[in-house]
Specification:
Blueprint: E1 2-6, H1 10-19, E2 29-34, H2 37-47, E3 51-54, H3 63-73, E4 78-83, H4 88-96, E5 101-104, H5 109-121
Parallel strand pairs: 1-2, 1-3, 3-4, 4-5
Amino acid sequence: MRMMIVDDSSIIRNRIAQLANHPDLPRIDIVGMARHGGEAVSLFAQHRPDIVTMDLTMPEMDGVDCIKRLVLMSDNVRILVVSALGDKRTALQALMCGAHGYLHKPFTNAELVGSLRELMKD
């Protein structure tokens, strides 16, 4: 599996990247890390990851708009929203636009690993 991590926080990007090597997960290669949606679209076009973790609140292009763009580029991409945004309406909008799961920040290591496992099942 090839994964891209999209979050404006370097701490979160690095934490997700470290957890992607968890022994309970199949092999995941991190092919890109983006700070905002615009960067994510560019990296996605280059690397075509299978799975993406996506923050919703970012500068330049938010997560919902980015999800729409990525799904247009590949309807096979599996997207996990990882966001502190407590707005259920925005979370539902992200899911309706093509995201496959939602994980609320702050998250535990077990929650992220479980969400990634679920994302890779299909």
